[in-house]
Specification:
Elements lengths: L15 H18 L13 E6 L4 H13 L3 E5 L12 H9 L5 E6 L4 H6 L5 E7 L5 H15 L6 E5 L6 H12 L3 E5 L15 E3 L2 H5 L4 E4 L15 H8 L3 H4 L7 E3 L12 H4 L7 H35 L1
Parallel strand pairs: 1-2, 1-3, 3-4, 5-6, 5-8, 6-7, 8-9
């Protein structure tokens, strides 16, 4: 199995064959997670620390469940009560944790690049659970697995990503991954929610849902990230839904078998019609949640293998 990475900080540095390796392994964990006995000892004796500087019910629960099903000792740090709140720097926090000899560190942080900085200071494998507006790699990977299972392939598809592109690390990671796997990516949203220079990222840009969704195989809606907005990016939520919210009429512009996705949490009636979100014939939103656990299990499994190999090589070098 080809997977060389020491950390999972983003999609940008993963080769297509590494993405396929991770997704193939995740498929085996989908099967495991559907059994009565869901445990394995892949990470037995290893310690996983989850550090979430930003709240996230889905991602944190998914990583915690993934680690426990793999047999790791899992610790969730309460960052709202940590020494960081008392003025300790991120680097000092990293050094303190490193002295405890963890094996896997899962980090979610509000600042872009913070997770990469931590990874430079520790001797364990680091997984990025979302950093600022930079990336959210495991979300893109679970989206990829969901698409591959629903459409039977992960190449030469037309994927429309709709909504708040400017503030979305999910959009960025998906854009990179889908591009690596030879898909046609369209970004749809109001100009105020498009990042500058977006057209240079190898995608098509639309501010009209009808034109953007025409012939799409996959329709991926994004949450309006109001916590990252500091101005009037949209006239009103009602107007936003009228123009860019997904309903049955707008979905009609896409292919008849197009699937509907959303990373969650959803704002029903703002980004997506509630009835459509619950339509088992079109929506794969709950499948995304299920695939999240399997993908994170696969990611930690592969990183743990590389970590063990590196430690083994280091020990052999010391002995020599």
């Amino acid at each position: 199995m080809t997977f060389r990475a020491r950390h999972l900080l983003g999609i940008e540095h993963l080769a297509p064959e590494e993405i396929r390796t991770l997704l193939d392994l995740a498929e085996t964990y989908v099967d495991l997670n559907r059994r009565t006995i869901k445990k394995t000892d892949v990470l037995a004796g290893m310690t996983q620390i989850n550090m979430f500087f930003e709240n996230s019910t889905r991602t944190q629960a998914s990583f915690e469940l993934a680690g426990k099903r793999l047999g790791a000792d899992v610790m969730n740090m309460a960052m709202s009560q940590s020494s960081v709140k008392k003025g300790e720097t991120l680097i000092d926090t990293a050094l303190t944790l490193n002295a405890m000899h963890p094996d896997l560190l899962v980090v979610r942080h509000q600042n872009s690049g913070a997770v990469d900085l931590l990874a430079q200071k520790v001797n364990c494998a680091v997984l990025n659970a979302g950093d600022g507006r930079h990336e959210h790699p495991t979300q893109a990977l679970l989206d990829a697995l969901t698409i591959r299972r629903a459409k039977g392939r992960l190449h030469r598809l037309t994927v429309a990503i709709c909504g708040d592109i400017a503030h979305s690390r999910v959009a960025r990671s998906n854009l990179i991954l889908l591009g690596k796997m030879e898909n046609r990516v369209r970004l749809i949203g109001p100009p105020t929610l498009m990042p500058p220079g977006v057209a240079e990222l190898g995608c098509e840009v639309y501010d009209d849902m009808k034109a953007g969704l025409e012939g799409a195989d996959v329709v991926m809606m994004l949450r309006l990230q109001k916590e990252r907005m500091d101005g009037g990016f949209i006239p009103s939520e009602r107007e936003y839904f009228y123009r860019f919210g997904l309903d049955a009429e707008k979905l009609g512009y896409a292919k008849d078998d197009a699937i509907v996705m959303h990373p969650g949490p959803m704002n029903r009636g703002v980004e997506i019609d509630g009835t459509l979100a619950d339509d088992i014939n079109r929506s794969v939103i709950q499948d995304q949640v299920e695939m999240g656990v399997a993908v994170r299990m696969a990611a930690m499994d592969l990183l743990a293998r590389n970590l063990k190999a590196a430690r083994g090589a280091e020990a052999a070098g010391v002995m020599v």
